[in-house]
């Protein structure tokens, strides 16, 4: 149990994650929050008076809390949240504290932050713990955490207990930055499948097949996969898929492009051959910049690739 928890980054994901903590941690636990957007802080503090308290910056949150979670967009934000010499988490004594970064960023930045902490604070522990499951999963409390730690890590039980309050599975991935390596590999695969599914649906439909029949065939055949089954990019195939709802309320195409780019960079760095990476990156970059697709669910690549939506 913890008497104090800190949370930095109260956006689409962070806000519902904090609400789960406020609803499930013992009433005596205080949650200190910070975001560069003041309104994001005020909304939460007003909703949970006395339980969620305002931090003046990331450093202040780190000073007050025993365990600190961060959920910001990109590597540059993670650097500034942790390393800023005036307002950052490392500007205060964080010895003995647990720090968990849930942002999806590159492994090199995460390792650099971890090294910086390890050299200055002998007893502070930093972990990467990116999530999967989207905004809906964050609200429902079903997101999965890919935790950058060894299965025998002394902190694993404590980390799992806390993360489980905000989600479902917590998978220890083996060591520092490997949660991120797992997350980026996952999103690379899911991004490639969405493009492949769009193309396969399109060629079948242009040949005369009904898209629902085609989806049944994939489900019964060797091509069976979750994207085709539950997130089919063709509108009307699966009623609950974002595509059947105008590609709204899914995983935004610009976030997929961000993660895909990070995955391709990682593949290059580790010497993975990655022949589909270039085509995928070009496709998601094009879709992200297409006004018919921007801000919509990433499976809108089907539209970008000229698929028929009738
Ligand atoms: P978001 O843009 O909605 O929220 C990010 C928040 O961080 C914003 O409120 C922003 O003001 C705040 N922020 C930025 N810089 C800050 C700083 N220096 N100090 C304090 N606060 C700062 O983004 P999101 O959708 O919540 O995503 C957060 C992370 O989770 C990203 O890395 C994203 O890739 C990942 N993720 C998102 C989804 C999704 O579906 N949205 C799913 C899985 C993972």
UniProtKB/TrEMBL annotation:
<feature type="domain" description="3-hydroxyisobutyrate dehydrogenase-like NAD-binding">
    <location>
        <begin position="179"/>
        <end position="302"/>
    </location>
</feature>
<comment type="pathway">
    <text>Amino-acid degradation; L-valine degradation.</text>
</comment>
<dbReference type="Pfam" id="PF14833">
    <property type="entry name" value="NAD_binding_11"/>
</dbReference>
<dbReference type="GO" id="GO:0050661">
    <property type="term" value="F:NADP binding"/>
</dbReference>
<keyword id="KW-0520">NAD</keyword>
<dbReference type="InterPro" id="IPR029154">
    <property type="entry name" value="HIBADH-like_NADP-bd"/>
</dbReference>
<keyword id="KW-0560">Oxidoreductase</keyword>
<keyword id="KW-0101">Branched-chain amino acid catabolism</keyword>
<dbReference type="GO" id="GO:0006574">
    <property type="term" value="P:L-valine catabolic process"/>
</dbReference>
<dbReference type="InterPro" id="IPR006115">
    <property type="entry name" value="6PGDH_NADP-bd"/>
</dbReference>
<dbReference type="InterPro" id="IPR036291">
    <property type="entry name" value="NAD(P)-bd_dom_sf"/>
</dbReference>
<dbReference type="InterPro" id="IPR002204">
    <property type="entry name" value="3-OH-isobutyrate_DH-rel_CS"/>
</dbReference>
<feature type="active site">
    <location>
        <position position="183"/>
    </location>
</feature>
<dbReference type="InterPro" id="IPR015815">
    <property type="entry name" value="HIBADH-related"/>
</dbReference>
<protein>
    <recommendedName>
        <fullName>3-hydroxyisobutyrate dehydrogenase</fullName>
        <ecNumber>1.1.1.31</ecNumber>
    </recommendedName>
</protein>
<dbReference type="GO" id="GO:0005739">
    <property type="term" value="C:mitochondrion"/>
</dbReference>
<comment type="similarity">
    <text>Belongs to the HIBADH-related family. 3-hydroxyisobutyrate dehydrogenase subfamily.</text>
</comment>
<dbReference type="InterPro" id="IPR013328">
    <property type="entry name" value="6PGD_dom2"/>
</dbReference>
<dbReference type="GO" id="GO:0051287">
    <property type="term" value="F:NAD binding"/>
</dbReference>
<dbReference type="Pfam" id="PF03446">
    <property type="entry name" value="NAD_binding_2"/>
</dbReference>
<feature type="domain" description="6-phosphogluconate dehydrogenase NADP-binding">
    <location>
        <begin position="4"/>
        <end position="173"/>
    </location>
</feature>
<dbReference type="InterPro" id="IPR008927">
    <property type="entry name" value="6-PGluconate_DH-like_C_sf"/>
</dbReference>
<dbReference type="GO" id="GO:0008442">
    <property type="term" value="F:3-hydroxyisobutyrate dehydrogenase activity"/>
</dbReference>
